[in-house]
Amino acid sequence: MSSTAREEPNYEYVNGRLRARMRDFLPAQVFAELACADLQGVERYLLNTVYGPLYRRDFMLSDMPLTLKLESLVSASARQRFGELKSWGKGTARLLTSVLSIQSDLENGQLFLRALQSGRNDYEPAMPGCGELSPEFWRQLAGAGGNREQIDELCRYDPTELSNVLSTAVKLLDESGRLWEAEWFYMKSSFDWAGGVLKRCRGSNGAVVSQCLGYLIDLWNLRVWLSVHYGSGAPVEAAHFLKGGSLPLERLFFTKSYKALLRGTFWRSRGTDPDERSLFELERQYLLWQMTLRREDPLGVQVIISYRARLFCEWRNLMTIVSGLQSGLDRAALQSVLLIDR
Fold it and tell me: Is the predicted pLDDT of residue 136 greater than 90, yes or no?
């Protein structure tokens, strides 16, 4: 991370670029329509969008199966656009973009730890390398095949602090054999890193990003709470809530009712009896909230937050559609797991 808080931030420049890019996003109703098409229909549609030039250049004439072509296209486009966003920022605009990107590193790191725990060597990063840890870093980890010496070397020579955090989490997993403990350490240490960066970004922009991080911490804590009270989670996991979320720790420790847990909070609209969709609906609420922020301050970090959330939703929707169509998933079921505002 080359920028410093002393550099003059360039929100006006970054936000101007992003507003021009907003027209590149696919209309929300298109995702439901594509879920009722077939893979060839998805290909034809994307050829006439912002994805078209990249597809014609890098994928159209490839011998890869159509599913892999489309998945590779969507991820490559997301990597390109996330990467451009990171490269445009200076000063606190760059620092806060780095903090916001932590969600990618958290998800990829968790998946990597779970692959190691299960003994699988076929790890694939879930998100398109849009965090502090580069796409190349995650590709090299996937190619390590679970080899601990190679993993340690990759983490040691990566210039970011989060790679050291991941290396320590892998060692903790090997020593304890407890996945939840390694995940908790990785999450906590990553949020600690983000908090350290936020301390250098005072003012209203830093406060908005701090609020985003708080809700992201809530999502982890709610996953743990639901696992303990409604799933197969061991009670000891309750001791591993993370500090810094909007939900008070006392409420997480002592509340037994899901509705009571969420009452009066940002998450109150989801306070019904939990089911298998609860975490998905919570994540969707968080992302849709982020997308509305650009209306609050067109000159601040809110535009960056909104753009990132919308780009993530588009990437996820398209990947879900391609995977669902390939597997023959029922169209109604496929539409129900799309991150769109119905």
Answer: no
Question: Would you tell me how many other CB atoms lie within 10 Å of the CB of residue 286?
Answer: 18
> What angle is formed at CA 120 by the lines to CA 118 and CA 238, rounded to 5 degrees?
30
Ramachandran assignment for 103, one of left (phi > 0), alpha (psi -120 to 50 degrees), beta (any other): alpha
The pair of structure tokens assigned to 103 is 């969600």
Q: How far apart are CA 33 and CA 317, in angstroms?
A: 12
Shortest CA distance to 278 belongs to which of 266, 270, 290?
270
**SS3 label, residue 11:** helix
Nearest CA to 155 among 189, 120, 181? 189
Contact 190, 107 (CB under 8 A): no
**In whole angstroms, how far apart are CA 216 and each of 85, 102, 185?**
21, 10, 16
**131: which DSSP letter?**
S
- How confident is the model over 93-133, as pLDDT tens digits? 999 999 999 989 999 999 999 999 988 766 677 766 678 89
CA distance 18 to 316: 20
* Mean pLDDT on 284-294: 93
Q: What does the alpha-carbon distance between residue 327 and residue 114 come to, in Å, rounded to a whole number?
A: 23
Shortest CA distance to 201 belongs to which of 89, 85, 109, 44? 89
Please give the C-alpha separations between residue 214 and each of 218, 247, 307, 324, in angstroms, as whole numbers.
6, 9, 19, 32
Tens of pLDDT, residues 303-332: 999 999 999 999 999 999 999 999 999 999
Distance, in Å, from the CA atom of 125 to the CA atom of 122, rounded to the nearest integer, reads 10
Give this prediction's pTM: 0.92
* Cβ contact 109:169 at 8 Å: yes
DSSP H or E segment with residue 8: none
Instruction: Report long-range pairs for 228-235 (Cβ below 8 Å, ≥24 apart).
Output: 229/256, 229/258, 230/258, 230/274, 233/180, 234/180
